[in-house]
């Protein structure tokens, strides 16, 4: 089985890389390696530009996983030119957009630490992020959460990434915050994202290196989605 090499796992700050086109189909362009994060875990897929050796460019409107969850597909924008199999390309990510996703994604880890109940889902777009909590009674307050979140951001804490085996994770089920979240089948190592003193959980998303990089945020909404579900929405201030 082909597995796309995910350069963002080792370095989420890479903004370009070289790659070879392995396949081109209606579903998307497959490369041997990529810096583009494929939509998953609530985080939006990246947008990017592929530059061919003759200077032509291919606009990538989204990045998704193939059904096998092993191959990453770069979805071309409508009407854009397509590369040929075997061509070398330079992948240049829409960095400002990705960095906003990294900042908001990391912010959700902080928000999750402030509300210690099971998480039922989350969503991260470049402009706002939401997290759903299994919480029947809500005493949550937007102003209080905003103040607590910004204090955690200003604490200037470095984020630590470590790897553990699926067996080690199975021995520590308390680490998993999101109900029903499971790593892709066949995964040999699982990334543990730790914000020391605040949060520690398995996560495959992209994060900033330090909480201060998130910048000021504001909790804009606390919604009742169902009898047991509270949604908290956060935006950049
Ligand atoms: Zn994460």
Automatic annotation (TrEMBL):
Entries under InterPro entries matching the protein: Ala-tRNA-synth_IIc_core (IPR018165), Alanyl-tRNA_Editing_Enzymes (IPR051335), Thr/Ala-tRNA-synth_IIc_edit (IPR018163), Transl_B-barrel_sf (IPR009000), tRNA_SAD (IPR012947)
Cofactor(s) listed in the protein's UniProt record: Zn(2+)
Domain of life: Bacteria
Domain Alanyl-transfer RNA synthetases family profile as annotated: residue spans: 1-237
Pfam name, any one: tRNA_SAD
Compartmental location: Cytoplasm
Gene3D superfamilies for this protein: 2.40.30.130, Threonyl-trna Synthetase, Chain A, domain 2
SMART domains found in the cross-reference section: tRNA_SAD
UniProt entry keywords in alphabetical sequence: Metal-binding, Zinc
Organism: Cupriavidus numazuensis
Protein's name according to its UniProt entry: Alanyl-transfer RNA synthetases family profile domain-containing protein
């Amino acid at each position: 089985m082909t597995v796309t090499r995910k350069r963002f796992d080792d370095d989420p700050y890479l903004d370009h890389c070289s790659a070879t086109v392995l396949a081109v189909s209606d579903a998307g362009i497959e490369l041997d390696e990529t810096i583009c994060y494929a939509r998953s875990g609530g985080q939006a897929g990246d947008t990017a530009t592929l530059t061919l050796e003759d200077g032509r460019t291919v606009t990538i409107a989204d990045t998704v996983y193939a059904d096998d969850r092993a191959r990453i597909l770069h979805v071309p924008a409508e009407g854009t030119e397509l590369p040929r199999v075997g061509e070398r390309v330079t992948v240049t990510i829409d960095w400002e957009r990705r960095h906003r996703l990294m900042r908001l994604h990391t912010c959700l880890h902080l928000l999750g630490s402030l509300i210690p109940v099971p998480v039922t889902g989350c969503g991260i777009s470049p402009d706002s992020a939401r997290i759903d909590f299994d919480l029947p009674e809500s005493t949550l307050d937007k102003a209080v959460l905003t103040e607590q979140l910004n204090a955690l951001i200003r604490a200037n804490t470095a984020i630590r990434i470590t790897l553990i085996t699926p067996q080690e994770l199975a021995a520590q089920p308390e680490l998993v915050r999101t109900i029903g979240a499971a790593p892709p089948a066949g995964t040999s190592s699982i990334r543990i994202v730790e914000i020391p003193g605040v949060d520690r959980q398995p996560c495959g998303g992209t994060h900033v290196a330090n909480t201060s990089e998130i910048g000021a945020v504001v909790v804009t909404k606390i919604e009742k989605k169902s009898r047991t579900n509270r949604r908290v929405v956060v935006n950049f201030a």
